[in-house]
Amino acid sequence: MLAMKNFRVFFLALLLLLASPVARCQSDSDAEGREAAEEVVADLGIVGEDVQDFGDGSFSPAPGVDTVCVFPKNSARLITAGEETELLVGMKNDGEATVNVIAIKASVHLPFDHRLQVQNLSTQGFNNATVPASAQATFPYIFAVSKFLQPGTFDLVGTIIYEIDQNPYQNTFYNGTIEVVEAGAFLSIESVFLVTLAIALLVLLGIWIRGQIQNLSKKTKRAPKVEVGTKTTDASLDEWLQGTAYTQSLANKSKKKK
Q1: pLDDT digits (tens, 9 = 90+) for 99-116
Q2: pTM, to two decimals
Q3: Cβ-based burial of 3 (10 A; exposed 0-12, middle 13-18, buried ≥19)
Q4: How many CA atoms lie within 13 A of 98 on its CB side?
Q5: Which of 40, 100, 166, 227 sits between 20 and 30 A of 89, alpha carbons compared?
Q6: Are 14 and 90 in contact (CB under 8 A)?
């Protein structure tokens, strides 16, 4: 059972990579439909934020409905504050009834506590979006975080709301981290930290090398020690110096000592 669920998730991810922002559906209702190409739904009836109000209630997911999310051309999930970001929501309906997709919504939370909501993002509604039984579909969702949001790491929670036989359900298609960066920022928070750490290590290494060089130069400047032994006098030298001022000074010194 677990292997089958993992296969479904992998299949949905593959579907999203191949799909365009327009929803595509493929029905298994007959043999001809399975052999044909995916049916393109030309008009999903996207209506922006003018959607049915379901309040703050939370609905359970419907059996047989699986969802997955992909950030096209943005695998790093870098969200520029104040600018629009697009993601794709894939849905696979293994149930027996048609799924009527109503809306997609999302919110931004602090990563350490989801009860602390940072921003409630826009809700995107659909008037004409269905997923027949045994079919798959891809839906685009465009959102933008506030341009005043402080750069950093946050958690994004995305939910797709749908109906089956007029009963509301919802699936959380994404519940993970995103990194918000300032407009025009070329480096992420992690990149800035790594660059700062590298500079600090280089400075410490330079200080250590400088200290080693100074210690080495001090050792080379020290004068070598000279050992002083017992003085010896060469007899031939004394004879050669007889009668000079040197021998007279030695004689005077010897008399003083006595």
Answers
A1: 999 999 999 999 888 888
A2: 0.56
A3: exposed
A4: 11
A5: 166
A6: no
